[in-house]
User: Which sequence fits this backbone?
């Protein structure tokens, strides 16, 4: 079994890692780390509210009994000598400092954005750009690390990149225009939107989000050539909004392809898409990376987010677009705290284990 | 005073007409009509639930006392000989039959879509395409009517056409891509979305809506030339969704202009836009047709829908678009049951009274 | 295997029966019936919207493939000669006519209220009043039926009666005061509350609900003596409201007991409550009929409704009441469309099979 | 004009004070104070978010232009020598320190709970217990202050005490049982509930709330005798919950009266209730302190909270209770951030000005 440490284990993403690794066939949780405040206590004590006695467990799944008595260690003092892989669930500011410390010795898979845009850092989605993992060897060399850092994309990027991939492969892309209607869980708990503000409302701005999605999508769909990733060269423009939905990002996509194609061609390309090399066989992978609905009232976040335990991207309303050259439009739903967060990172770990990057 | 009949007076749009005409300086309610079931009763009785005694009044504004004792007449038998104008708040199927009956003798201003796409029927938004009213003379002649039918646009079209107008005038348009996040009140009560279905959800499909918005926007921004309207020739593509908001449609717009322009140019054109000929002086008109926010967290439907009693369109986040040629993107909020429905129709009546089409 | 017919199979409660019976160890679905409109089609066709092709499947669980090709029969012509039990998921008005027709020959377990208040009809909750099943023999005789009708309680009654039972047994009851905050799914789809009406709101009235809950709770907790049920003699008063929650009724209960008791006594009585005769061993039964939280922020409908697949009642905030003699107050959450509807009815069937009433 | 200082002016309650005092006939805003961080800036700058430029204005009403250029002072250094009255909108912890400092010299009207339970401090609701103001003279003497501190009740207490008053006067009270369904705005912004947590949910616990409501209601309805308030002697028990509503607390009340009475008696007593001495003539007072609905679907928070600008308490569903001796039950809606907060405090100021306590 691969021994994993979860850093930032007491927060919502950390808890999602714990759920995603429960009964995992290849990976076991060997260490939990968090801030100094939690250090030295059992996991259960660390997430128990002192005054009310309430358990601060944020996942829909029940608390994982197996970790409740594990000790929580201080992240900045964590000894990873017996650890094979570090899952990082910390904020970007901290990630800038802590992740390189771990990467000196061990592979780090991160949900933070801190290193996503570095030249020698891939943003991996297994089945979409598995071959970008080769960049990790170059990263190791250039940084003199035994380990490496590999972040997953922003939760809004994931569904977009996944659904664009079969289109890009089959027909090429000129331009992509996307408007997101994002769920509240994407904002986390510390900077979460108040019920007061989102009720009967749409928040039209998520700071930094649009730039991330645009840049990451081009990088993920880019080619790995001569030791570096050349971002895909289509134009992309996003508007990201927050709606009163708990989980599951909805995205309205308009795409202009290089080759003309019919709605049925797009649907077929999405349906038969299984990744580049058997990624749907990985333990956390969905059997169908993309599920295409005929029902025009789908996808809906409440009905579709849980498809294949939140790892499938659901698509519907594929139609001819009437504004763009060779235009197609569709909607997608993607589970922002499953494929778009911890479980997506576990899937990356599985790819890297399978392909020998982690052992 | 211009004497108005409201047909479909007991429904939600009919009630909004009653509110919009309360204390109106030019127009007075002279007759209320509805289906046979309500006919012969006072308005109050007609909207009172027999079993519970509850008043079925659906507007946020309090019930209008002045009409409570007015009799409700049977719409299909309504005598309009002493009426100057008919406001029609009925469903499209009925409108096809009833509106022409009234139009034989009198002007009909309608919220229904039944006649919107007829060659000789304008879709008026005062200040945006006031000159299209000239088509009404041609309609009268061609149909041999003393009156005419003039529908207002779909509630989702209104805000889009209004905000595109100053852009189109100043810079021309190549293409428009729009994703809407529409409020529930737009669906009315009979086909309204269940709480069960919209809670924690987005509904990605509103049957017929996208085609209406695309077609109407091109028609409204078209030229009136040689006795007919030539639709504007830019491309347009929409995706219309329903979100858990009570009132106020939010729209995410991406526009490609013919001439290059800066964000500031667009903002300035919108801010200074006052219509073609003093329409903002009409009694129901907003003082500012378009309000442009600097705050990137605006517009929000809950905060902005009521601006200028729901008659202003609110715009924010005007930015460079990165996918389209000469691209600009922005968000707008428009009050779907004020400017987008009854009060918008009253504004049309005011324009037509001012310009001598109704007397 | 016991062969079951589901009458009203295409509606939401009918679908919940299909889910509740999937892979059932003792019962198999042998017939599906609905209105004449659906008759003669496959189940899949019967629930497919003709115009859009969308599947009208309303459960959270995925559609049950096993029944998709089963034919739907006309309920009023249903041949039940080879059927062992009829699950009725129809409205009360229809139930009055159809259920006696079936009961002449076979046992009918119903979610409708039509017969709940008849002298010879028990309202069964296994583990709470299993012994009331004896009344079915008397019903058979008095009505000259081979079968019988046994309805389950109103969804709001279920959680209240279950949590009161251990209190009533241990300490007696003088009076119960309850305010409910009910989920929208309880209203079904045909009379469902509009999103427009429930957003940012509470609806303070559910016609008929309070009387049902009051009467049913007294009947369920009553004694079976000399061939009839003597309702329990405590006073009870309810106020039932609807809140913006999808599933899971929350109830705020104040109870005055006959004997003095401490909060810990009540909590202990609830926790150790396992029914009268091994009912928690039945296939659909929860392992814990009542789950008592220490965390004062529980129970919450979204977090607790799914406990033990919606069959457990969750309780929290057990405290001394300061207004009533020997007063205790607490909150409960009960899953209105699991224990409170179809799956609760399946549990009744299991009890009756185990105890020889159905074979 | 009476010159007022608002302390805590930049928070949500402070902003509500600014709105409540706009165009006030008797009171003008003479000073604004907040924490050191805001001090020295204009009000507009103090509530402008530095990074985004967004105005942090939280009221539904538009920002009050008249105060935008007023300087914000440091609350702990505020010079109140030219001030006639201090409105305190600060948290309880700060209130304990700051309010006595101001009260040495000037009257302080507070929304904080810090001093509510002190023997020599009344909790005033004009029209309900105006005569308790006499206690302020005693407070002045006993504390050696020229001013005084008078807090308003908790927002959940207000509607309960107001509706119980006419019942208590006419029929006496034995016991009151109340379950609240409280709006989110009551929690303020700093400790506000996350959208993530309240969506599709009810939160069954609001720390400290129940005890406050119970104690305050008895004090407010108590007699002022021989220099002190004797709390009313009925029993009272509350359960307070939070629901997904923006503004407007709903309360389900069960009351046992000393004298028998009919539903009509209660309704009549509430309807004709106008306070003890012309309080409904005060500038901010509602014309009808209590509005009683016949429609059983009322009161609803969204429809009724704004009645008489949020200063009326709305009641409906008055019915016989079936559990308590001489029992009556009803529901009420009260605007928690109008009558229950700043505007309620302004109403207290008006009473005290009228009756000579402030000059």
Assistant:
């Amino acid at each position: 079994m691969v021994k994993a440490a979860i850093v930032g284990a007491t927060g919502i993403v950390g808890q999602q890692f714990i759920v995603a690794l429960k009964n995992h066939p290849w990976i076991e949780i060997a260490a939990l780390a968090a801030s100094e405040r939690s250090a030295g206590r059992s996991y259960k004590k660390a997430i128990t509210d002192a005054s009310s006695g309430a358990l601060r467990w944020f996942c829909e799944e029940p608390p994982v009994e197996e970790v409740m008595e594990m000790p929580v260690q201080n992240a900045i003092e964590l000894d990873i000598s017996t650890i094979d892989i570090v899952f990082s669930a910390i904020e970007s500011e901290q990630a800038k400092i802590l992740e390189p410390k771990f990467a000196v010795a061990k592979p780090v898979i991160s949900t933070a954005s801190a290193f996503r845009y570095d030249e020698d850092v891939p943003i991996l989605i297994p089945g979409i750009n598995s071959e970008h993992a080769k960049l990790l060897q170059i990263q190791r060399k250039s940084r003199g690390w035994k380990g490496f850092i590999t972040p997953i994309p922003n939760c809004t990027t994931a569904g977009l990149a996944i659904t664009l991939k079969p289109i890009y492969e089959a027909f090429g892309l000129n331009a992509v225009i996307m408007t997101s209607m994002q769920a509240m869980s994407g904002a986390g708990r510390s900077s979460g939107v108040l019920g007061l503000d989102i009720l009967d409302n749409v928040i039209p701005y998520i700071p930094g989000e649009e730039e991330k999605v645009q840049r990451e999508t081009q990088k993920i769909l880019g080619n790995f050539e001569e030791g570096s990733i050349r971002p895909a060269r289509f134009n992309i423009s996003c508007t990201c909004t927050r709606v009163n939905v708990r989980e599951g990002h909805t995205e309205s996509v308009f795409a202009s392809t290089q080759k003309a194609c019919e709605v049925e061609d797009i649907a077929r390309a999405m349906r038969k898409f299984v990744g580049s090399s058997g990624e749907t066989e990985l333990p956390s992978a969905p059997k169908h990376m993309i599920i295409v609905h005929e029902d025009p009232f789908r996808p809906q976040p409440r009905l579709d987010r849980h498809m294949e335990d939140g790892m499938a991207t659901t698509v519907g309303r594929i139609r001819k677009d009437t504004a763009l050259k060779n235009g197609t439009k569709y909607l997608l739903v993607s589970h922002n705290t499953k494929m778009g967060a911890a479980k997506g990172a576990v899937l990356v770990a599985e790819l890297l284990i399978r392909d020998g990057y982690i052992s």
